[in-house]
Amino acid sequence: MICNNLTVNKEGHLCLGGQDTIELAKQYGTPLYLMDEDRIRERCRTYMTAMKEAFGETSLPLYASKAASFKQIYRIMKEEGMGIDVVSSGEICTAIAVGFPMERAYFHSNNKTDADIDYAMANGIGYFVVDNREELDAIEYFASKRSITQKILLRLTPGIDPHTYAAVNTGKVDSKFGSAIETGQADEMTAYALAQKHIKLSGYHCHIGSQVFDSDTFLRAAAIMIDFANQMREKYNFVIDELDLGGGYGVRYTENDPEIDIAENIREIAGAVKAQCKALDYPMPAIRLEPGRSIVADAGMTLYTVGTVKQIPGYKNYVSVDGGMTDNPRYALYRSSYTVLLANRANDETTPFKCSVVGRCCESGDILQENVTLPANTARGDILAVLTTGAYNYAMSSNYNRIPRPPVVMLKDGESYVAVKRETYEDVCKNDI
Hints:
Number of strands: 21
Mean pLDDT: 95
Helix content: 25-40%
Distance between the termini: 48 Å
Largest sheet: 9 strands, mixed
Oligomer: single chain
Low-confidence stretches: 163-171
Radius of gyration: 23 Å
Strand content: 15-25%
Number of helices: 12
Structural class: alpha/beta
């Protein structure tokens, strides 16, 4: 199995976090998002412990909310002592609803509206991660109206290509995010931020991309960022308090993906950061990392019920399920790989056949995965599992074709509970007039 929280019981049923997925499907129905809460907490503790040991007590991992945002996630992050990064007023509202301490919240986005900035500031946001000059002007305006000093980080692009999906590559000079160091814009933004009366520039942020499987790109990014910070000290006598190196560690979606030792990677980054700070005689800043996918992805699984099996001799085979691109659009968006198997016959060694697993939407692109190997006798009523769906599945779900979203069921200590209710048809229509 691609993750150690997956097992197969004596009935041949796939288990997540020790719990029988077939029994869960019977209890809650399909499509069904499952989330292993014990796994999520384990990942949080790995980051918290590794960062404090490597970087010191001032370090803090920030959970990247966009990976999966709902109330229970923020309760978990609050209880585990994590910070959060948020990218919208909706995520801020969700965190506030469960009493998350907003001084530990960092607000991202390349285009925060005036309403976003006003709302975040009114609710005590800890930091804005500022993308551009217009945003700086808006923050200065709203902070002056409140007679406060607002802390910010500047988002910079270090000019690194981590060779991930183009859609999730954010560290290059021509990214839509941040101010490029190479073009001199990061220098200009630093000077402009330092000149504002109601803004405290606390440090810098960068994010190089997602599905990164080694420390090399983080090490290169850290080197560029610290070197730039040192240039700004020499030019403006400004020393950063914080350096946020973003997120992006990859996870195992298939057997071909490597397994990452997060703690070891953090130790490598810490060694390089400390060495460069020492070489430049630069004060060690408080370090932030922003794990999202690597916190929740392999805690998740989606269960479906097989509806039809269509075989077109000499051409192609299709297995259709009762969900699809409405609950997981990632294959349609950028051909993301997933491991797919029958949960009710996880050890079935019946002659296999290759198929495309497709959804129920009236859309040719409604594909969950191509070239999947399933037993040749796969039939209506089988329960199909797509693994590692904890990140960017519920978060990106939609009501396309007016299909209600599945529930999110959390698994903890051998028990299960509903964290997000299954939508009804009435829910889908409730905002219509």
